[in-house]
Amino acid sequence: MQIRENISLRQYNTFGIDVRARYFSAFAGIDTLAAWMEKNPKVKRVILGGGSNILFTKNVDGIVLKNEIVGIDEIKEDDTYVYVRAGAGENWHRFVQYCIQRNWAGLENLSLIPGSVGAAPMQNIGAYGVELQEVFNSLSAYHLHDKKVHNFTAGDCAFGYRESVFKKQYKDQFIILNVTFRLRKHPVFHTSYGAIREELEKMQVGELSIQAIAQAVINIRSSKLPDPAVIGNAGSFFKNPEIPQKQFEVLQKTYPAIPHYPARQYAVSGSDDQGFIKLAAGWLIEQCGWKGFRRGDAGVHVNQSLVLVNYGKATGKEIYNLSGDVLHSVHKKFGILLEREVNIV
Ligand code: EPU
To answer: Which of 19, 127, 139, 197 has the most beta carbons within 10 angstroms of its beta carbon?
Structure first.
């Protein structure tokens, strides 16, 4: 394992924040990494995948470990499903395309999401009506304390809206090594999301296919969301809030056009999740006048207020402070406290 010193992290996070790591190393397997950690138990560690859901607000006085475990293997199949295992360091979108080319269905709605395979279950990535948990079969992860590899089923991961055990009770405890997906040999199409239907119509698709859906998603994302290679960002900065039905009804009287959706049920029915309404944080932020706002090189994206951007030289603190201002103004106007989706380091 090659350890480099005093490395800029700019190219390792999609926000393009120029902080430095005291030590930096990539790892392609767990053995050498485990041996290194055994020898250096006191060094602070930050595990990095594609760096697409992280905001660095200061230098890392420890080691940044970049997961570069690769490999895609078909491990078994039956009449309905194919089970595919991918290394956590694989690029997410390249993996999605690999599967689409082989007509393995289920990932098409999740096309073009920045990041790595290993980061996908961490926050149960989701887009255009599909979440990772619907195609997830299992994963293996190395536990930093007991130094063993553990297997997790979907139940073990306790997926929620942009949530899993790896963001909550097991935060910073596991390194995800690989993820196994259960993909369909015969597709079930997810086109209920309005924007997808509109885009498919625009594309004048004759026969629906996973390839067409992937293309529709790619078109929508490219038109709405900034490309991190061009403008630094980490996708949605906040989660869409879920509020009690009663609170929603009061708001709707003042703002009849407020976009809203039934909140997804993660818990078993009968839980106190019932009676919640999900709102579009982007809409709330836009209503507070932030859309297109810029302060120095930190900004709120011109097409999607849920996305904070770095036009070049913004620091992580400047982005973080802007997120705080956005949060306060939404709270003041609507009485709703937004929650950050991006990991702050
Ligand atoms: N809207 C506004 N103004 C804005 C932004 C949005 O009025 O500035 C309105 C839209 O017009 C629409 C509604 O808000 O009525 C929802 O907007 P959109 O369809 O763009 O989706 P979103 O709720 O803002 C979520 C995910 C995205 C995902 C899209 C599509 C979260 C936090 N974000 O965004 O995920 O791509 O839905 O499914 O749930 C991400 O997690 O990084 C991410 C990009």
So the answer is: 139
